Amino acid sequence: TGAAGQLGQELIPKLSVLGSVVTLDRSAIDGQANAVSMDLSNLAQVEVYLNRTRPDLLVNAAAFTAVDGAESESVDAFRINAELPGCLARWCAGNDRMLLHYSTDYVFPGNGTRPYLETDPTGPLGVYGESKLAGEWAIRDAACRHAILRTSWVYSGHGNNFVLTMLRLASERPELNIVSDQMGRPTWARNLATVSAKLLQRYVAAPGDFPGGLYHYADRDAVNWFEFATRIFTIADRLGLLHQMPACRPVNSTQFPQVAERPLYSVLDTALIKETFGIEAIGLERSLEQCLGELKEND
Fold first, then answer.
1. Residue 279 and residue 200: Cα distance in Å, rounded?
2. Dihedral (C-alpha) 67, 69, 70, 75: value to the nearest 10 degrees?
3. What digits encode the pLDDT tens for the residues 100-116?
4. Helix 189-205 vs helix 284-297: crossing angle, to nearest 10
5. Cβ distance 270 to 117 under 8 Å?
6. What is the bridge-based pairing of β-strands 57-60 and 98-104?
7. In 10 A of CB 257, how many CB atoms?
């Protein structure tokens, strides 16, 4: 599900090694075999489709990700972020299937001083985080075979994300104010897709021994948004993606008011996924350079 999103598009080639991939989204992806157009907020329709096709694995990359929009569209946010994963999980429980689902660093309040563990208390600051946390609870309540991956600050070469926004703004404005008091771990969608495929390959090899549950995965380096933007512009300039290098000024969140409050510190600890699956978090610089390099090739 959510196949047309930035993570969904990266998942398709990674999951295809496991078997036939059927993609579900509001709009089918051009040129994608087994692409089904479906309104994922229509849970009855989703369940009918699952009963007809009976997939072996479900990967739920669908999400309502508009953090500010969720404040005024809470019904839609909870429908996609909480009720849909609950529907998928109940179907998996009743049919002995496996569900891989994605959650977010925004389930935490952001007042920590060390990277958040899977076992740390949650406390979302807004509707988006609340709806994603409710999705986690719905999956656990269904008691199906599952793995939930909390991640953070996802970017890619398509969709809506910080990297593409910064490149667009750099072409429009000579000066940019960028928030410098929010800290997290930017994660390339392709790295998250690769990790997902590794988990599912482990499951397929030995379903009865699969250590399911909740895990954190984010790429290795923790930065603030200002530092992230600086790295984006440095690499983009080197690759010839910028017509001009913008002058960047760090500002506090209070100087950049948004509808929804953001956590100031949402760095995720990834020790558990390394210990359990041997998955090492990948560095920001190499991933960002590859992502921007592909943008240059397609420019």
1. 13
2. -160
3. 999 999 999 999 899 99
4. 110
5. no
6. parallel
7. 7
113 CB-side CA count, 13 A: 0
Q: How many angstroms separate the CA atoms of 286 and 25, rounded? A: 31
Separation between Cα atoms, residue 277 and residue 271, nearest integer Å? 10
Angle between helices 284-297 and 162-172 (to 10 degrees): 60
Residue 240 DSSP code = T
Put simply, whether the predicted model's pTM sits higher than 0.85 gets the answer yes
Which tokens hold the place of 29? 């992806």
Residue 276, φ and ψ in degrees, nearest 5: -85, -40
- Tens-digit pLDDT profile for residues 221-232: 999 999 999 999
Q: Can you tell me the distance from the alpha carbon of 26 to that of 292, in angstroms, rounded to the nearest whole number?
A: 28
Q: Which two tokens stand for residue 19?
A: 């078997």
Could you tell me the two tokens for 140? 């656990």
- Residue 11's contacts (CB-CB under 8 Å, 6 or more residues apart) are 3, 59, 61, 193, 196, 197
Active site residues: 128
- Picking from 63, 1, 60, the residue whose alpha carbon sits closest to that of residue 28 is 1
